Amino acid sequence: MIRVSIHKNEFNDCIGVCCKGHAEYDEAGQDIVCAAVSVLMLSTINSIEAFTTDQFICDMAEEGGFLDFKLTSKPSKDALLLIQSLVLALHNLEQDYGSDFVQFDKEV
Q1: Cα angle for residues 65, 93, 74 (degrees, 5° grid)
Q2: Interacting residues of 32 by C-beta distance below 8 A, sequence separation 6+
Q3: pTM: predicted TM-score of the whole model, two decimal places
Q4: What is the DSSP string of the chain?
């Protein structure tokens, strides 16, 4: 299962997302849920880097399916919107495929 945690700041803004684990929806290389989460996460990170001046930290490890990013500067409206869009898409995956494969965890 992919566990999703949301990073929030003191204003309750979503400023990052951490995903851990593998969905195990299908065998490795065929798992469309894992692929969707990976594409959504990487696309959001790349978009923040390309289209905003926001600073962030990012940590990842293929082993264990770990990807964590968090804004480190005051968030721009554009970066916040991109992260909100990511969270919405991840919630949609959880609804569409079930919490056996994607599950939201605590806010960190």
Answers
A1: 70
A2: 25, 26
A3: 0.93
A4: -EEEEEEE-TT--EEEEEEES---SSSTTT-HHHHHHHHHHHHHHHHHHHH----EEEEEETTTTEEEEEE-SPPPHHHHHHHHHHHHHHHHHHHHH-TTTEEEEEE-
Q: Which residue, chain included where needed, has tokens 């195990």? A: 24
Q: CB of 83 within 8 A of CB of 15?
A: yes
The model's pLDDT over 61-86, given as tens digits with 9 standing for 90+, comes to: 988 899 999 999 999 999 999 999 99
pLDDT per position as a tens digit, 14-29 = 999 999 999 999 998 8
Using alpha carbons only, what angle is made at residue 58 by residues 52 and 62, rounded to the nearest 5 degrees? 130
Look-up of token digits 């949609």: 92
Q: Which of 17, 37, 35, 18 is nearest to 80 (CA)?
A: 17
